[in-house]
Description:
Oligomer: single chain
Largest sheet: 5 strands, parallel
CATH class of the largest domain: Alpha Beta
CATH topology of the largest domain: Rossmann fold
Number of strands: 5
Amino acid sequence: MSSVLDNITVLYDQLFDAEKKIAKYILNNPKEVVDMTVSELAETSDVSIASVSRFCRKVGLKGFAHLKVSLAQELVDTHKGGEISNEISLENIPQSLQNILANKITELKQTVNSINTDEFKEVLEGIKDASRVQIVAVGNTIPVAIDAAFKFNELGIPTTAGTIWETQLSYSFTLGKGDVLIAISNSGESDKVLEAVKIANKNGAMTLGITNNAYSAIGEEVQYHITTATREKLFLDEFCFSRVSAMTVIEIIFLFLTVMVENAHKSMIQCEEMFAVDKR
């Protein structure tokens, strides 16, 4: 189940300007919000009380009281190991490292806990038995796709990923029944990736989306979806991107496949022996 801070982060770009002011303050000051009244949050964020109420509903909460309870619980869960904040400072590197670590741990926990195990098993079976797997990504998620292709090919699963969008899209047209397309997008709103998903669906391929938002355009279009949590906005304000969760999902899929694919370890050893020549 996603936390309130994760939900706010995922939905941030869809909020109105007044709601973004509230979201920004909560992300930067969750501890303070727990002790505030609705009037105080509205005044501090320079918005109306009605805007706070609308904001709470938009991020999946019943109201301001629900927001405070959810934040308090999340802070308890996140900060069990000691006092943690969202600050990064050269003046206090040890504490900053702990702040980053605590939030990354929470990010990964939220990602793993969001996986629907029944659907996940179907995804794993689909990838294992696939004639071909295509992993589609653009921009900052391309390294995740390339890493996934490398891992799956090591297991003997024919997999492709690329850096040129036109090449990726043209390959999507070749997919059909028995093939799998994995779409990786932080926001889930990439028009190019969405186009590839639609093509794969039309041709009968299995489609899996790995995004921050199950209700995004890609999340709604794919047959299967894994929601990745990201807490970068806690540190970087307007900028929000993390490969950690998506890479972890790929790593999880890979590890399960190592015990599902026949002769997986033999295939991996052969690849590693071949690569070892260049590692000397």
